[in-house]
Amino acid sequence: MGKDEDKEMNIYANEDSVNLHNVTTETENTRKYQTPQHTGIDCVKIRRYRAAVVCLVLLCVLLLTAVIALCVHIHTNNTDYTGDSSELLINITNLAEEKDQLLTRNTDLTEKTDQLRTKIVNLTEARDQLVDKNMQLAKERDGLLSSNRDLIKQRDQLHQEKNELLKSIHGMDGWIYYQSNLYFVSSEKKSWTESRRYCAERGADLIIINNREEHDFVKKISANANVWIGLTDSEVEGSWKWVDGSTLTSGFWDPREPNGHRGENCALTYSPGWADYACSDLFQWICEKSILK
Predict the structure, then answer these.
(1) Is residue 5 exposed (0-12), middle (13-18) or buried (19+ Cβ within 10 Å)?
(2) Is residue 168 part of a domain?
(3) CATH number of the domain enclosing 279
(4) What is the distance between the alpha carbons of residues 163 and 144, in angstroms, rounded to a whole number?
């Protein structure tokens, strides 16, 4: 588009030059062939005419020059404006893309921030739970340490009491130590009631047999003799109870016993097992007392 405008301006300029040349030529020709018959007034007119033509030509040249300069200026400015507009459009496009990228990044950062806040809340709750649990464990630890100290004191006290009891046992004739209990096997014979009284006077009672090991121990220390034990059904026939009031749940009876003959309401142990006899019968007995009481 700029080249076409330049060509059009050149054509106009050439036409003006040709017209100016033609006018000048005609003027000169008129001057050559003019006869000397013209008067002074005609010469003045001719000069004025020539001056007007020259002014007109100069004015046209100036106008043409101004038009050309204005066209060049407009073309240059238009080119500059077109370039600036293109650059602005490119900048706007780039800024729009950057804005979209920033919005996307901002959205991502917002989501990550929310996720981090959620994690912080969860971690804070977990920390608080751990702190509470740690405090509880600390209290339990302190309680266990206190209990351990108390148990150590009790252990030491029991050791001391045991040593003292063991010393006293050596001074007790006929008493045998077994599993924290003391046992006494009599050498004389008494009724079940008198035997129990004898034990009570010495801080003991007739033996209570709790298990097979203790039963075998009694048979061993009594040499399988007939000895009273702390078992009777004198209150209710057939309901055997120990001297501490507990009910017999299982025993080591002779297969033929108890038979309940002749008001046999007291139990003794002998080689085959336990048997019921009359409480007034005379037999040896075994006393039992705990060293922990």
Answers:
(1) middle
(2) no
(3) 3.10.100.10
(4) 28
Give kind and range of the element (H or E) at residue 220: helix 212-222
Residue 149 covered by a domain: no
Distances (CA, A) of 165 to 98, 184, 218: 96, 15, 21
Please indicate, yes or no, if residue 130 is contained in any of the structural domains: no
Band the pLDDT of 14: cuts 50, 70, 90.
Answer: low
Distance from C-alpha of 285 to C-alpha of 228, rounded to nearest angstrom: 4
User: Is 127 a domain residue?
Assistant: no
Helix axis angle, 40-170 to 2-33, nearest 10°: 170
| Residue 118 main-chain phi, psi, to 5 deg | -60, -45
Q: Are 75 and 9 in contact (CB under 8 A)?
A: no
* Cα–Cα dist 199/264, whole Å: 21
Q: Using the predicted structure, report yes or no on whether residue 140 has a pLDDT greater than 50.
A: yes
Domain assignment of residue 234, given as a range: 175-290
- Both 279 and 191 in a single domain? yes
Total number of domains in the chain? 2
Does 64 score more than 50 pLDDT? yes
Q: End of a domain among 85, 100, 115?
A: 100
**CA neighbor of 231 nearest in space, from 190, 196, 266:** 266
List the structure tokens of 81.
């404006």
Q: Determine the Cα–Cα distance for residues 66 and 50; give it in Å rounded to an integer.
A: 24
- Rounded to two decimals, the pTM is 0.47
Check: CB of residue 260 under 8 Å from CB of residue 238. yes
Query: Given 59, 84, 100, which residue is the final one in a domain?
Result: 100
DSSP state of 169: H
How far apart CA 186 and CA 197 sit, in angstroms, is 13
